[in-house]
Write a structure and sequence with these properties.
The complex is a heterodimer. Chain A is of the alpha+beta class. Helices cover about 50% and strands about 25% of the residues of chain A. In chain B, helix 3 packs across helix 4, helix 5 packs antiparallel against helix 6 and helix 8 runs antiparallel to helix 9. The chains are: A alpha+beta, B alpha+beta.
Chain lengths: ~650, ~325
């Protein structure tokens, strides 16, 4: 039979070979391992490798091998018990300060496969265990930060233009500037438009809409309102910066293959495979710590302010983290102006302060923060500057019978020191009670500080045994379901059924190959999707076989029946699969983890099944039946008459 | 082996008034159940209370689930947390007699009472926690948009490849199938979680696939037969695709039965929905979609000009 050209056979062969190669990594089960990486200034080298070997040998922990891999060391273990023992031993010996010791699953895929980009499909949390967090960014805080920032900028602009103003205060979605005369208002409007209300990029709109509010009691207010686009852009930026910071923080935890992705407009999904201790993960992810540098208000008496509650409008009462002689936290009054904030912080590390050896955190700001610091310190040497440490955690409270998560903000002044000299982007923060505290603070600060805090709204732990259990069950369901269909098809459609069976197995291989190439995460719903795809993939073969039987019934010759069967079935298969694919795409929009995994599997499965069920079976049918004189076809249903 | 008589000529459409009446009844029942009784949403949708429990002696999650079931906490999610002695229990928000949601502490106390009654070595390891729902509001609205998008997409495709009557009949049966599948969950009060939601959408995919195969034959028969009496053509199309319809349904159902019995609790709901969907979807192709097509007045005349075949599309692979 010549209606199947050579290039189609070649295409089928090439696709199948590629399919097998890229599906191959699935058989290499990852190995329990411990990864050691340098977290701060420490070096990972041959000497450390020897040290690791020594530790494992002296503790008599069985291990497979220890390998130095660029900037990290990977120790492989034969089982998870040895892995836990090894991790504990290495953690105690190497210390958390300089090295991060983390549980890991090492790939056992051979190098030549990895070199061509063939990697094993990552497993979802439900299949390998780990913790799952859903975090939500508080958009109110974003607005407050914007108001603060623009109010500061407006004050500076007015001062530079030497315009006297009554007040600059946050108002609904913006800032209200109160002036003393119509003339001042006009000038202020111009100054703000020129210096503050400039589009960030060419072609953008200015961030605020300025309008004059009616005069009252001799005050002339300007209302600056943020455009919706500005607020949205800021929120987007905040979520993006949260994503980056969370990634850094997760790296601090030393988790390999974490999943950190945006979900919806203000939620972030964090999945940490292999981690079992939520408390430790939560401490790093959930706590939001930032520093704010404020000038100290040295005119107001803090004890007086605490007693009377009278604080100048541009100042605020804080408390130190240490107690005074009266056993209460020492009050301190600071200016509201922020010199630099946590989001301008690049790095922070703990160590003894060079001057007195007391615990300190050495801080490194970015250039914007450094410039502000330079501006401030150059005019205020000898004056005092305080550091406010803001920590945010969430608590569950009951309000009106409903449980809600309430963020709890703790603000403490951790240092109130005089400025000893002019400095910009590198300086030390002292006043920490112990080296341990300095280390902890540095850890949180180093991981970056968030522009707006993200609260954990959901957490879930999946045990590794459950993951193992799920894998086994899923695997068994796929195998038995597949086997049952294979037998049923062979019984019902004979040789054509066997050919369809081969196509079905190839479909599974191709599906795994494509999913592996895309590095789609395999989850339990994903396995369900695979099973469903296989069950439905046979439909195309059923259509073809039924058509061939019909043609035979109508008296066509065997070869003509094959040809007509494939031809007529193709239109149906195409229509059915395109509409099915449309429905599968709809699932993507549900974006959420479990459904997405399922949708990806379904969509890819529809495409691969069209190839295997139609093109591959056609090639096989032609190989079996072409060039032979046929009296009948083994398609079942009583039409098998001496084809062999 | 030939299970179905190849020359079968059952007059399926003779039953159309009866079958449509049953369909209508089922749809109405489903709507009443969905809006009246409501769905028993899973923890994915409702959020709930998370309690971690440790035992002195190893414990089986089935045992914990059993103890909770007896105490009236159905649909509790019990998972082992590392090791065999620690489990996490997630319970849907509970309401007291007055319909007020109970606090986490109260729920936790009741759970611990139920667990210690069975095994005295059960201990709560840390304070109970409230977990939020996984399905956010925006996800729900995105979902509705997605479903509309899918419906419009399928209608356009079928409208172009077939004719508008086919598109209308297909969508009407999609809605019919989805409502009955979801209605099953409302009536039985089986837990409706995010995996079930995914499978409901998979049912849409399966069902549309099935309709298109029948429609395809209808179109073919209209074009090839000279005297195309709609009732005859539709009956013939259903009869000649009947063996394929049933074989495919059976094969797909085999895999879902395997998944139902062997796949574990996570995919239980998924397999169950698919099995119902396969049954409803297959029956609706014959007893619902085709009668609708007939009533919309499908005829040879309408089909001929619009469906000028694109030779590229109809080409064999």
């Amino acid at each position: 039979m010549n209606d199947f050209s050579k290039w189609k056979y070649i295409l089928v062969a090439v696709v199948l070979v590629l399919g097998f190669v890229y599906a191959l990594p699935i058989i290499y089960t990852p190995q329990a391992a411990v990864q050691i990486s340098a977290s701060h200034g420490a070096t990972v080298d041959q000497a450390l490798k020897e040290k690791v070997l020594g530790i494992l040998q002296t503790k008599k922990i069985t291990f497979d091998d220890v390998e130095l891999n660029g900037d990290r060391i990977l120790a492989r273990f034969p089982n998870t018990d040895a892995q836990f023992a090894g991790s504990d031993a290495l953690k105690t010996e190497l210390g958390d300060n300089n090295y991060t010791v983390a549980l890991n699953l090492a790939s056992t895929v051979p190098g030549w496969l990895r070199a061509i980009g063939a990697n094993r499909m990552p497993l979802g949390l439900d299949l390998q265990g780990g913790v799952h967090f859903l975090m939500e960014v508080d958009s109110k805080v974003a607005l407050q930060k914007m108001q603060q920032r623009y109010a500061d900028d407006i004050r500076t602009a007015l001062r530079n233009a030497k315009i006297r103003y009554e007040s600059v205060n946050p108002s609904a979605q913006g800032v209200t500037i109160t002036l003393r005369s119509e003339d001042d208002r006009k000038q202020a409007g111009n100054a703000i438009a020129k210096d503050v209300n400039q589009p960030e990029k060419l072609g953008d709109q200015p961030p605020m809409e300025l309008s004059d509010a009616p005069e009252s009691n001799g005050t002339f207010p300007i209302v600056a309102r943020f455009r919706d686009a500005t607020v949205q852009a800021t929120a987007k930026q905040i979520v993006a910066s949260n994503l980056t910071t969370l990634r850094n923080r997760v790296n601090q935890l030393g988790v390999t293959e974490p999943l950190i992705q945006q979900q919806g407009t203000n939620r972030i999904l964090v999945e940490l495979p292999g981690v079992q201790d939520t408390a430790e993960a939560k401490k790093v992810l959930g706590a939001f710590a930032t520093l704010e540098y404020h000038p100290t208000d040295e005119v107001t008496n803090p004890y007086e302010a605490e007693r009377t509650g009278n604080v100048p409008p541009d100042s605020r009462l804080y408390h130190m983290n240490t107690n005074g002689p009266d056993g209460k936290p020492i009050p301190v009054v600071l200016k509201k102006k922020i010199i630099a904030a946590g989001d301008e912080l690049v790095d922070a590390s703990a160590g003894p302060a060079p001057e007195d050896g007391r615990p300190s955190v050495s801080v490194h700001l970015n250039s914007a923060g450094g410039k502000k610091m330079l501006d401030f310190t150059s005019q205020n040497v000898g004056k005092r500057m305080a550091v406010v440490f803001i920590e945010r955690t969430t608590e569950t409270k009951t309000v009106d019978g409903k449980e809600v998560r309430v963020p709890k903000v703790t603000e403490q002044v951790i240092s109130n020191a005089s400025i000893n000299g002019v400095f910009s982007n590198r300086f030390n923060t002292t006043g920490l009670s112990s080296m341990k505290e300095a280390t902890e603070l540095a850890l949180l600060l180093r991981a970056g500080s968030l522009a707006a805090p993200a609260d954990i709204v959901e957490e879930r732990v999946i045990g590794p045994s459950l993951g193992q259990d799920n894998i086994q069950k899923g695997f068994r369901a796929v195998m038995i379901g597949l086997l049952a269909v294979l037998i049923a098809a062979a019984l019902y459609y004979h040789v054509f059924g066997l050919i369809a069976d081969i196509a079905l197995i190839l479909n599974l291989v191709l599906l795994i190959a494509v999913l592996s190439i895309f590095q789609a995460t395999l989850t339990m719903p994903g396995i369900a999707g695979i099973v469903l795809t296989l069950g439905m993939a046979i439909d195309a073969n059923v259509l073809i076989c039924e058509r061939i039987r019909e043609e035979l019934r109508n008296g066509s010759t065997p070869l003509a029946s094959i040809r007509a069967g494939y031809e007529k079935a193709w239109a149906t298969i195409l229509d059915a699969n395109v509409t099915h694919l449309l429905a599968a795409f709809g699932l993507f929009a549900f974006g959420s983890g479990p459904i997405k995994g399922f949708a990806v599997t379904l969509a890819i499965g529809i495409l691969t099944s069209m190839f295997t069920s139609v093109t591959v079976t056609h090639a096989l049918v032609n190989l079996v039946y072409s060039g032979r004189k046929l009296k009948g076809l083994a398609v079942g249903g009583g039409y098998a008459s001496g084809a062999h | 082996m030939e299970v179905f008589n190849p020359n079968s000529n059952v007059d399926f459409l003779r039953l159309r008034k009866f079958s449509i009446a049953i369909s209508a009844l089922l749809v109405v029942l489903s709507i009443v159940a969905i809006f009246g009784k409501g769905l028993n949403y899973g923890l994915d949708f409702t959020g709930g209370v998370l309690i971690e429990v440790s035992y002195e002696q190893p414990v089986d999650t089935g045992e914990v689930r059993g103890a909770l079931d007896e105490a009236g906490f159905h649909n509790a999610l019990v998972q082992s947390v590392g090791g065999a002695r620690e489990v996490s229990v997630r319970i849907q928000p509970q309401t007291d007699d007055k319909g007020v949601t109970k606090k986490s502490d109260e729920v936790a106390a009741e759970v611990m009472k139920a667990l210690t009654a069975k095994r005295t070595d059960a201990k709560m390891t840390r304070p109970p926690d409230f977990v939020g729902p996984q399905v956010g509001e925006e996800l729900k609205s995105d979902g509705i948009v997605a479903v509309l998008f899918v419906i419009i997409g399928i209608m356009i495709y079928i409208g172009i490849r077939f004719e508008w009557r086919f598109a209308v009949a297909a969508i009407a049966s999609e809605i019919h199938d989805t409502l009955i599948t979801v209605g099953f969950y409302a009536i039985t009060q089986h837990e409706f979680d995010i995996t079930v939601l995914a499978s409901v959408l998979a049912v849409v995919g399966y069902s549309i696939n099935d309709k298109v195969v029948v429609f395809d034959r209808v179109r073919e028969l209209f074009r090839s037969s000279r005297r195309a009496e709609p009732v005859e053509v539709l009956n013939k199309a259903i009869n000649s695709t009947l063996s394929r319809t049933i074989i495919t349904a059976l094969f797909t159902a085999i895999t879902m039965v395997a998944l139902y019995f062997l796949g574990g609790p996570v995919v239980h709901g998924f397999a169950l929905t698919m099995l119902i969907g396969i049954l409803v979807g297959t029956l609706s192709s014959i007893f619902f979609a085709s009668p609708i097509l007939l009533w919309l007045g499908v005829s040879k005349k309408d089909l001929m000009p619009v469906t000028r075949e694109n030779p590229e599309l109809a080409r064999r692979p």
